[in-house]
Amino acid sequence: MFQKHIAILAISGSGKSYLTSVLFEELLDRMEELGKPAIIVIDPHAEYVGFAKDKRYGQSVKVFDKKNISIAASALSTYQLMEFIPQISPAQSRELYGIIENLRSKKRQYGFKELVTAIETSEIKRVTKDVLISWIMGLESKDLFSNYTRPSMAELVKPGQLSVLDVSDFVSMKEKQMIVTYFARQLFNQRRDGKIAPFIFVVEEAHNFCPEGTRKEGALSRRIIETIAREGRKFHASLVLISQRPIQLSTTALSQCNTHIILRVTNPYDLDHIGKSSEGLNSDVVKTIPGLRVGEALIVGEAVNHPVLVRVRGRKSQKSEKGIPFEEALLKYKAKTKEKEKDMEAFM
Ligand SMILES: Nc1ncnc2c1ncn2[C@@H]1O[C@H](COP(=O)(O)OP(=O)(O)OP(=O)(O)O)[C@@H](O)[C@H]1O
Ligand SMILES: [Mg+2]
Q1: How confident is the model over 63-73, as a mean pLDDT?
Q2: What is the rounded CA–CA span in Å between residue 111 and residue 145?
Q3: CATH of 5-68+162-311 among 3.20.20.70, 3.40.190.10, 3.90.550.10, 3.40.50.300
Q4: 80, 114, 138, 188: which could form a disulfide with 76 (CB 3.0–4.6 Å)?
């Protein structure tokens, strides 16, 4: 099934992430003799971090979160750096390219500060200098960049390992997109060059990372996801796109997903969109989609001859709830204020 790309589509709360967890279990449980793929998941809500603590699966799972995700300025090719500055004009990018090449020839490791100095001392026009510097400073101010790139591709991509890129603690969508852009491009390039194992790249909330129609400034990661969708199959780089808003998902990427797993969808526009983009789905079958219950899924496309209705089995792994329930938060807050009051009393 994973030989081709997959889209998992349904409204919120219909069981997409649950189904995805079950698919992860199946992949991790695969017999060694059959070969195991590397799995990398973009996890915007820290939904899969629980796998790492699970008795059965924990040892094959690695979680990377804000504390251990970073990108080194000098690890970015000029092309990758420019992917982060989508508003750059061709003329500006030529100037920046020259400056970076020059800096590279002198130094292997450099940070954004050194790049700014290099721009400042270059021969280009003042106005161009100013815009380039402001963009680079904008990047420098993000927590995402440091002197190291972590995780390394060797840590991220291991056959039989589920790697969770937990981006929930990065506040801005732009930072999350930068992470997806950087790692997805590394994954694609290194797989194409045969440097890493065949992998399955799973993108939750795919409409945020590969949206249809928004300007490129709002969709840094769209281009690389579409590239993997179009060309990944040749190199055994599989894509799984998960979305509760199929209508906002890039049609280029969606049309490359040969297998669609559809759970409950109610919005008529989304239904219409799914009907059009899923081959082998006739209008009678589409009519059954709003009636699906939680845990029921319709599989259509290349993996099956005709639409198949399945019941998703119960999961074996433990669920991860990020954060604490509301009531617990209230009690914690109360305890904390009490402590503060005590401290105050002692102080007076
Ligand atoms: N096959 C199933 N068996 C039992 N419970 C399920 C099943 N599928 C989903 N659930 C339950 O339904 C709830 C919603 O599931 P889930 O979080 O997977 O939805 P989702 O489609 O990913 O939602 P969102 O779009 O908000 O991310 C969860 O509490 C989950 O435990
Ligand atoms: Mg979900």
Answers
A1: 94
A2: 9
A3: 3.40.50.300
A4: 80
